[in-house]
Amino acid sequence: MKYFVIFKLFNYKTMKNKMKLLGLTMMITVLTFVAIGAQAISLDKKTDIEERKSAVEERRNEKVCSRIDDVLTRLEKKIGKKNGEDKLKERVQIRTKEMEENRAKRDADLSERREVRDQNRDVFYDKLKAKAGEDSAKKAAVEKFKTAVETAIKTRREAIDSAKKTMNAGIDRAIATRETSVETFRNEFRSSVETAIDKAKSSCENGASGEELKSVMTQLKNDIKTARENYKAKVSEVKKVQESIQTLREVRKESVKLAIENFKTTMKAAQEELRKAMGA
C-alpha cells in the first residue's frame, strides 16, 4: 500500500511536469508565431513605405523629365525678350526705311543745290564773256577757264558721290551682317541647347535614379549657361555696328576733304591763269 501511494504520487508529479512542459512549449510556439507575424507586418509596412517612396520619386522624376522639353522654348523667350530680339526685325525694317528716306532726301537736296550752283556759274561765265568783249585771246582764256572749272567740279562731285556711295554700301553691309550674324548665333545657341536637352532626355529614358537625375539636371543647367553666355557675348560684339559705321563715315570725310583740296588747287591755278589773261 505504501509503494502504491508512492507510485501514484510520482506519477502525479510526472504528469504535472509534462503539463508544464506542454504549456511552455505551446507558449513558445505562440510567441514564435506572434514574433513571425509582427516581423511580417513590419516587413510589409517597410515594403509599403519603400514602394511609396519609389512611387513618389518616380513621379518626381517624371515631372522633372517632362519639363525638359520646355526648357528651350522658355530660354528662347527669355533671351529674346531680354535682348529685344522679338522686335528686332521690326526695328530693322523701320530703321532701314528711315535710312532710305533720309538718303533720298539728302540726294534730292544735294541735286537741287548743285542745279542752283550750275545756274549761278552760267551767269558768272556770261559776265566773263562780256568782260572779254571782242578780244579773241581773252575770249579763249574765258573758255579755257570755264572748261577747267567744269572739269574740276565734275571731278569733285564724282569723288564726293563715290565716297558717299562707298559709305552707304558699307553701312548696308554692316547692318545686314549684324542681322545675319545674330540669326546665326541664335541658331548655334538653339543647336547647343538641343544637344544638351537630348543628352538629358536620354538619361530620363534610360531610367536615371533621383541622384543621377540631379547630376543630369546640373549638367544640363551648366551646358545651357555656357551656351547662353557664348551667345550673349557674340551678339554683344556683333551689335557694335555703330563703330563700323563711324569708321565708314570717317573714311568718307577724308575722301571728301581730299576732293575739296584738289578742287581748290585746280581752281586756284585756273583763276591765276585767267587773271593774267584778262590783264587784271
Layout of strands and helices, then pairs:
Elements: H1 2-68, H2 71-82, H3 88-132, H4 136-205, H5 210-238, H6 241-278
Helix pairs in contact: 1-4, 3-4, 4-5, 4-6
In short:
By secondary structure, this protein is mainly alpha-helical.
What does this molecule look like?
The protein is an all-alpha fold. The protein folds into two domains: 1-68; 70-278. 93% of the residues lie in helices and 0% in strands. The protein contains six helices and no strands. It has helices at residues 2-68, 71-82, 88-132, 136-205, 210-238, 241-278. Helix 1 packs antiparallel against helix 4 (136-205), helix 3 packs antiparallel against helix 4 (136-205) and helix 4 runs antiparallel to helix 6. The longest helix is centred in the middle third of the chain and has 70 residues, at 136-205.
Structural class given helices, strands, pairing? mainly alpha
Cα radius of gyration in angstroms: 50 Å
- Can you give the mean pLDDT? 79
* N/C terminus separation: 187 Å
